[in-house]
Structures are given as structure tokens and as C-alpha cells.
Amino acid sequence: MNRLLLLLTLCLAWLTPSPASASGAIHIYVGAPGRNKVPIALPSPVSDHPKAAEFYGVVQRDLVLSGWFDVIEEAAYVEPKGTGIRPGQFNFEDWEVPGAVALAKMGLSAKGTDQLRAEVWVYDVPGRRRLGATALTVHADSWRSLAHRMANEIIYQVTGQKGPFNTRFTYARKTKTGKEIGVVDFDGHAQRGITSNGSINLKPIWSPSGTEVSFTSYREGNPDLYVADLRQGKIRRVSNRMGINVGGVWSPDQSKMALTLAPDGNPDIYLIDPVSGQKIKRLTHSSGIDVAPCWSPDGSKIAFVSERAGGAQIYMMNADGTGTKRVTFQGSFNTDPVWSPNGDRIAFVGRNGGRFDIFVVNTDGSGMMRITQDMRDNEDPAWSPVGNYIAFSSTRTGRAEIWMSTVDGHHQVQLTKGGGYLNPNWSPSLEW
Amino acid sequence: MEATFRPTWEIGASIGVHVFVVGLLAVGQLMGPDKPLFDPNDVMTVQAVALPKANRRMPDRPTRAPDPPKGDAVKAKAPPPPPTASDMALRKKKATKKKGVADRSADRSELLNRIKRESLLKDATAALGAKDRVQTAKDGVDPKDAVIGPIGAGRMDPELARYVSQCRDRILPNWKPLPAILAAHPEYKVVVSVSVGQTGQLGSPTVVKSSSDASFDRSAISAVARTGRFPPPPTKYAASAAKGVMITLSAADLR
Questions:
Q1: Cα distance from A30 to chain B (closest Cα, Å)?
Q2: Which of A82, A305, B13, B107 has a CA-to-CA distance to A386 between 20 and 30 Å?
Q3: What is the SS3 string spanning chain A?
């Protein structure tokens, strides 16, 4: 009898539809949320320090510039101002009301007579947990740098990526008499001049250590190469050979400098000693123009521009001048190559329809991507230290300003105001 | 006690039940020509089942089209880059070694290379046009490529595929999980169920299968809740949608 029941049960089970098909559910798969901006609540720092409001403004602007965040308006906050910033001192529910996904709470206080201490606590609101926290004390004069570092901590805890906020740009800016070299914070503030010789000064480039800047100056009549030591405030001439001495770019280990020289009238790429200026080697020997050298991050290769095949195109060669390969084949005029920090891509300027735009291409010449289009001229690309942004000069507002874009071109923001900014070059991450 | 085989009435009954069942199926086929064999409301999820090693061939039914090649596979299929000056020089040298024998083939090869190169340059010039602009928006899945289930056991009804694609495009902009979680845990998946009314109005979403991370789960619930409304479901799927649509939100790209 038992066997009969078993058999009947099996038969019935076979005839009955499976639970999955009986439920009859439509199934939607959603993957790769991509770069939706994260709604972040950033209440004013708990502080009675006079610099608190400016400090807050710098952090807030950094987060907006990054392209990662939608900073929720303070008017939407439910939590009373001055509520504690540490875990257990506030309610996560208060931050769910305005729809915050991330919450960054800051405190700012004076320490001693000339020190400033900031702390930031970053929270995951839906997860009701702390993501991370940090505290820093600096000289009160460095409050801007402190704010940038707090912004870096927030972006790191929320996205897992290093922020670019403790960096600077060096640039050439048009003046009444020529062009001068200067340095400006990432967010376009705190400008300092490097040159003020009334001449034409061009193409500033940071050293890998971030303590020196090379540039070309006509101050003695000939376009010679100089290096400014930013810590000591001194400028020295490195190369004053006949003809152009342009684009002095250090090797990653700073033992060599690649630049363009034209002792015989035809520009070619050379290696020199960055301290003594002595010639080490001539790297190119083509009959066409070879300019704009740029090192790969591992120092094994150099990308450059050559007219050896007719129009200006991007090429690369081994650091000893052998094994030249052409990288770009699209367009008739491509220049200013800049190698990405992780070594897989090269940003460059391409001319299209009479305008200059920023492009990115894989080092094997594949996967070309356009970053700018139909926005007047966009030139002089520079990668952020970790390669998640590209800065460039753009005339889209009618004046040349430094702009920054995410590498996919999706988020582009203006960093400087006042016009005349050319040749932006992005510093490495700075600790000073 | 010695066990002996002896036919019993139970075996007879078993055979009888099987015959009865087969008979039922046969009568069902003959008597119900107007009714489809499968009601779309009854069969819309397909479970992937591992096949036995001895018979790995799937039965005769439509299968998912193979995925387009990705990464290295694409590189492997990409046309070779045009020869560089050094490549050309190398080829010339090789041709010179076989002088008198391979002169014509070397010329032909060089000519072919020139043609290839010119053709690439033409393509390149075209690529610098407006269409070369960076694509940042998520494209919807072409209905013909849509499948039921991640393992792909059959093509979806194009009408349903289009609907599913529209629903996904509505959810995506509202899904804002913490990027740090996505980067650290691409394996996270959460399944959310929500009822869809005839006008597309969504009910209260609930987590059917958790990712094990409260923040990730809540981001999924918020995404569906913020979406608020889907397009009205196709009429023949309305009953199914009213029962509940299953939405899998994955930290990784499923396509």
C-alpha cells in the first residue's frame, strides 16, 4: 500500500508545474549601475572657528567638482545644526529623510595658537554604518590644504578612489607683455607666480617629485629650458643650445630629461642630464619634425609627435630610441601626447574640422575615444595623478581656462576663472 | 528472510497510472488545438540545469545566441594594424633575400599593404565625425538579444523583451549604491519583487533574495521605489506582472 502511495505521489509531482513556472514572474536583470551620482549629505562642520564657513565651502566645491556626488541642499536636512559627528551621537533616520546615501560629518577646531584640527567621519546611510574617519592637524595658514584633504578622505571612503584634491596645476598665463608661469590649487584658487620676467614663458612640466617645474623661456632671446625649484624659490637654466629647447620632461626616476632640440635646424628628441644639462643621447633621426616627448610611467618608452609620415602623428619608441611604432592613424594632425599613469592609454590633441579636441587612445592604437567635441579649442591634456581625470585648456567660454573631465568625457567642469590659462600640467599628489 | 521477486498488483497499478497519464496528455493535445501548449503567464522563468556529462547536447530548441567577443577576443579579431616603417623595412629585407624568386610577390604584398593602409585611413577619417563621440548612456538590449535568465535557455518574446528593457532603463538612473561597495563586491546581487499594475504603477518592493549587505539591499529597494512606475505591461503579461515582477540588481554588468 505504501508503495502505491509513493508511486501516485511521484506521478502527481511529475504532473504539477514546478514552483518557478507556477509563479510566472517576469524577470528583469539590472547590472552595472555605472556613474550615477551619489546623493551625499554634507552638514556644516561642528565648529566655532572663524574659518569654518570657508573650509566648508572648499570641501563642498571639491565634492561637486569630482563628479561623483550630488550634494544635498542643507535646507533639506532634518537634523539640527551642531549635532554630534561621531557614531551614536546622531540618528541615521534623520539622513534617510533627505535621501542621503552617504553622509560626511566634519569638525573643525583651533589647536594651540596657530594650529587647526579637522576631523571627518564618513557614513553609509542605508547601511547605517561608518565607512571611515580621519583627523589632521596643520598650520592654520594651510586651512585650504586641510579642506582638500578632508574632501580626499570623503571621496576615498565613498568611492574607493583616490581624490585629486591635494594637487596643483602649473600653467602659462597670458599677460600684457607675454606669458608667465604659475601654480594654482586644483580648484583654481591660491595662485602663485613662478616667473615674472615680462617675457614669453611656456610649457611648464612638473618633476615626478612635485618639487620642481621645467619650462621654456625667451627671457634671453632664445627659447631656452629652465627649471624652477619650488621649495627654494630658485630658477636655473638647464639647456640653452642654439635653436629651440622645449618640453623638458623628467624620466620617472628623474635621472634623465627628454626634450626637443634643433641644433641643426630640424627638431629632434634628445636626452639630457636634468641637473647638468649635458647631452646624453639623440633619440630620433628622422628628416621630419620630432617633438613633444612624454615618458611611459615605467620609463621604458617615450611617446612623441612626428611628421615623418607627412602629417603630425603620435609615435612611441623605446627609451633608447629604438623600436619606433606609430600609435595614431586617424586624423591628419595629432599632437601633445600624455601617457596615463597606469600606462595603458595616451591622451592627445587632435585637429578635426579646424578645431582642436582631446582624444584618448590605447597604446596599441586601438580604442580611440573622443573627450571633447563642438566646444571650441581644447588643448594641452594632462592626467590626474591616479588617471581618473584629464585636465586641459579650453576656450569654450570665450577665454582660455583650465577644465577637467572624467576619462569618459561625461563630467566636465571649469577650474579657473579670469582667462588666459594655457599648458596646464597636473602635479603629482602633494604633501606640502 | 530470503527476498524473492514476485509480480504484485502494485506493479500493475503503476503501469496503469503511467498509461493513464500518457493518455491524458494525448487527449489534451487532440482536444485543445485552440489553446497554446504553454501559457506565457505560466512559463516565464527558466531554470538552468546542468546536463549530464554523457549528453551535453541541449535538446532541439532555440538557444541563446553566443555572446559577442569581449576583451582579448575582440583584439584577436581586430584587423592587424598597418605596417610601420620598420615593419616595411623588414619585409623589404626578407624579400631581397629571395631575390629573383619572390620579387613579384614582395611587390604585390607591399601594394596590398598600401591598399589596406589607405582603407584604414579612410575609416579613421570617418571615425572622427560626430558619431565618434563618447557613448555614456546605457543602451537598451536589442529585443532579439534578450534572453530569459542569465544562463539563457531560450529567446524571449520580443514584446516582453522590449518591455523588460524599458523597465530596466527606468530603474538604472534611480539606482545609487555606494561606489565603494560596487568596487569591492562585484559579486553582490539582490532580487527584489514588486507588483506592477495595469497602468504600470508599482507596489511596495520587497527583497526576495538578499545580497547579505544591508546597504546594497536598501539601495535596490530605493531604486525600485524611486522609479515609481513602469510602462504598462503588455496585455498578455498583465496577470503575471500583477503577481510580481522579479528584479535582480547586480553590482557587476550582467550583459
A1: 5
A2: A305
A3: CHHHHHHHHHHHHHHCCCHHHHHCCEEEEEECCCCCCEEEECCCCECCCCCHHHHHHHHHHHHHHHCCEEECCHHHCCCCCCCCCCCCCCCCHHHHCCCCCEEEEEEEEEECCCEEEEEEEEEECCCCEEEEEEEEEEEHHHHHHHHHHHHHHHHHHHHCCCCCCCCEEEEEEECCCCEEEEEEECCCCCCEECCCCCCEEEEEEECCCCCEEEEEECCCCCCEEEEEECCCCEEEEEECCCCCEEEEEECCCCCCEEEEECCCCCCEEEEECCCCCCEEEECCCCCCCEEEEEECCCCCEEEEEECCCCCEEEEEEECCCCCCEECCCCCCEEEEEEECCCCCEEEEEEEECCEEEEEEEECCCCCCEECCCCCCCEEEEEECCCCCEEEEEECCCCCCEEEEEECCCCCEEECCCCCCEEEEEECCCCCC
